[in-house]
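Example record used in the benchmark description.
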Amino acid sequence: VWPPERLVPVHRGDVAQTTGLAVRDYRDVPQHAITQGCVVVNCVGTPKGTPAVLGAVNQEVPIAWAHAAAAGGARAFIQLSSLSVYGLAERIDRTTSEAPVTNYGA
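Model output (structure tokens):
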């Protein structure tokens, strides 16, 4: 368990009215957000929106943070995602092929 003083939550919002690190757009990673040896965990995502919104939130955000993590010397980048990429599969394991049935899963 990480001590609370070592966790830095990042969220959208007004910088003056929040705790943690506030950003206006999750794709804009502040330079000071990543420190050498840290672990970056991304759980930003949405199942709703236009294909453009789904792409921005579910693809561009994790890519931006993964690149920032690598450039900043993070020891790991963890991406929490959705099982929607497997569509209607009844059993999901390492061998399950991706078969999304919605834009969210794609």
